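Write out the 3D structure for:
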Amino acid sequence: MKAEQLKKFSYERPSELDGKQAQPWPVAIVGAGPVGLCAAIDLALHGVKVTLLDEDDTVSPGSRAFCWAKRTLEILDRLGVADRVLQKGVTWNIGKVFHRDELLYSFNLLAEPGHKMPAFVNLQQSYLEEYLVERAVELGVDLRWQNRVIGAKQGSTGVTLRVETPDGAYNLCSQYVVAADGTHSTTRRILGLSFEGKVYEDRFLITDVRMKADFPTERWFWFHPPFHSGQSALLHRQANDVWRIDLQLGVDADPEEERKPERVIPRLKAMLGEDTPFELEWVSIYAFQCRRLKRFRHNRIIFVGDSAHQVSPFGARGGNGGIQDANNLVWKLVLVLEAKASEDLLDSYDEERGLAADENILNSTRSTDFMTPKGYGSQLLRDAVLQLAHRFDFAQQMVNSGRLSRPTTLCGCGLQTPDVEPFQGKLVPGSPCIDAPVKLPTGEDSWLLSHLGRDFCLLVFADEERTELPEIARTVQEAQTLGISLQPLVVCNSMNANINRLDGLRIVCDPQGMARSRYDAQPGTAYLIRPDQHVAARWRQLQATSLMAALLRTVGTARVTPTPAGG
């Protein structure tokens, strides 16, 4: 998407400039990239009024983030935009790694059968932002373009932002601020915060190239590519016949010179062939950074996405991790705003997403160190691994061209209730839920994850012949006395008249047994699912006291009285 074709949004004069001071917003979000937009949409779906400020008035140019992982697609599905992403984007599951001109190995990321979302979809960030903006407008989010935050002052009950517009500056008050303003975060600078971590000197050239090509829809990565003097290269297909190409340039590359067409085009011709016609869509130069803030929550200002942490683009961990940040934070903010949990719950965002950031940075650092070895010993080891990988499977496992994004399991973090009974499989408390095909009582096909999220869910696997099923409804009613929205979902083997007569219970059928297998379920097995579709607790047999204890652990026991926001 060329710069002149970027979707442009209209600036509207804020009413605050005319002396109309609105009530403080529950949440203000700074930055209208994918992370900020996802947070705004999720808040709106929870019924929270939210304003979103962005200093620009267009979607982001170029691909930037473009490789969207299965877990992120599941979140986008809950937010109501995944169908458009799947329709426009390019689905892929095969990756190939080359050493010079020889194929080392290939891998298949296709998940086991029975998942709604594929392993990965490639779609330029500009398109995703456009879809998210349209969804936010549909939900009534207050979007303010060309509104640049230039100051922030925190008080005991809220934050006052100083905002600059083409018509002048004004103050905006909110109870909480979500800082999603990216790598060069103004909010981070205003608070005087700095990153901890590592910056790599090697520079990489990114190009979006429009061309008709018969390359398969696969991720291709080269070590020591025969067509380029650098140590690595990467090729990805995107939507609209656009291909993403990354070329390693080295530490001495001049960013200004290397982005000029007369430097870029010869490099691409060497890779694609002199006779291959193509057009440059977008060019950028970047360096690896593996860094993070020490803390993501600073009283009432909370950082998400690239404003909180940065990783190398190899592995698709930046955009995916940021959207998962928002998914983790929003339901906690909602409970605090509704006075159903104390502000201490927000510290769990720092704990859980700090763990995820550390995991992403670790994987990103390992990939970067392998791809850009420093020192004679590191270079020798890397080259030896590549040579051995031509002949031995064990060495292929040591080749690191970017470990691809996977969701973080929050096992051991404070909100989860540890197992007290034996279970098999991956779904330990803290894990993201796994999808499975199910059927509705009407016989219509559906997906398990489509029934989880936004509220807490009690997922119960039941035998429709058992007489204890009405106890599920009574147990849920007892737990709801805590004031927390808890939606039951009963998974049965098949439907019958007895099941359909149970009032107040949502019911789905698992005729293929995939849900029961993936959740290691027996009759009576129950899972408490968080609003972000992570497992909070699980039991072989459900008891109201255990359920209430797990709910209280997940939201905190404190009750607070709402107070008006202020400056």
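The longest strand covers residues 196-210.
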